[in-house]
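Q: I'm writing up a methods section and want to include an example of the input and output format. Could you take the sequence below and give the corresponding predicted structure tokens, formatted cleanly so I can copy it straight into the document?
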Amino acid sequence: MCRDGSGCSRVRTRLAIKTHAALERFFPERRLFLRSDNDTRFIRLRPETQAVAFVGATLVVAWTIVATAILLMDSIGAGSYREQARREQITYQQRLNALSAERDARAAEAQAAQERFNSALRQVSVMQTELLESEARRRELETGIDVIQATLRDTMRAREDITQRLAALEAEIAEGGTALAGAVSTDDSALDMLAAALARTAEERDQVVADAQQALIRASEMQAEIERMEEKNDTIFRQLEEAMTVSVKPLDKMFQAAGMNPDSILSQVRKGYSGQGGPLAPLSFSTRGEAPSEDTQRANRILNQMDRLNLYRIAAQKAPFASPLKDPFRFTSGFGYRWGRLHAGTDFAAPHGTPIYSTADGVVIHAGWSSGYGRLVKIQHEFGIETRYAHMSKIRVNVGQRVSRGQRIGDMGNTGRSTGTHLHYEVRVGGKPVNPMIYIKAANDVF
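A: Here is the clean output for your methods example:
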């Protein structure tokens, strides 16, 4: 440090001189002349001024280069993001189109399955009628055979009686031949009477034999007809059993796939049934307390399967085995957790005002506004099942109204906490939400 002011001043002066000399090597002093009509002036550009101007210009150029680079990088990055977003949007749209095509294919398969199911039911009904007619005809034939056998027994007994009478007459003739010869010479009328009796007896015997042979032939024909009818019945039984297997097993799987116990469901339906199409009465062809025949047992097993099929039909109408939309749509969000919160249903996107249908028979327990759901319809179904239809633009049912499966209950909208037009569809069992697609997918292989 300087001890006095003059020393520090000399140091600063020497430093300034050295700095000036160094700057002068790179930026020599220049003069800028400004000439006018009457005068000439100049501006002296010292090295320090040039250095400051150079540094300022350098900083401006550097800042311009850096800013331009940042802008270019941002533009390139934004373009890449936009391109990536566009590619992802195209991929997402392609995926949605594929899902829509798959849904349409499933819908077509479901329609074809429904037609096959209805055709099987019609075939079962026709076969049941034929079976009942065949059983009635068989019973008539059996009754006819019993009558023929009884007649045959009576005829055989009559023939035996006549044979015995003929043998007795022949014995009497053999024993009383001499006396009869003497009587003949004295009384021709007694001989004529005996001959006529013998002739009648022989004719009766021959007729009895002919009747017995005819009865045997008729019995053989009826037995052959019964065998043909038994073969036909066996074919009908086999076709009915196959039809029942094809029709009932998919329904068993459908209810099991939905987490519903088929036996428990059918028991509830059977208890509450009170109309046409319910349990079928078993067949009973014997009135003498005899054990049912094998055909009767087979017929009763088929009737039990038909009863089960009919109860399944009733149960399927009461459970939500259907889609709430019939028009084209796309899935936008499934059941599960999103951002740490449970999304308790499945979202279907379609145009504003698309019709919404009830997925099962039930009673409307709510039809109005409900916080984030917007316009909401709740329907209570059998087996403790409830369905919810949210974000509607219009509600077409009232509280307490009974609705059927496939009945229109409202229109799709964007009310409540919603970011676009869609239907939020929920299924709750015992008050707890379950995945609606379980029921929709379970029905795809049947309906």
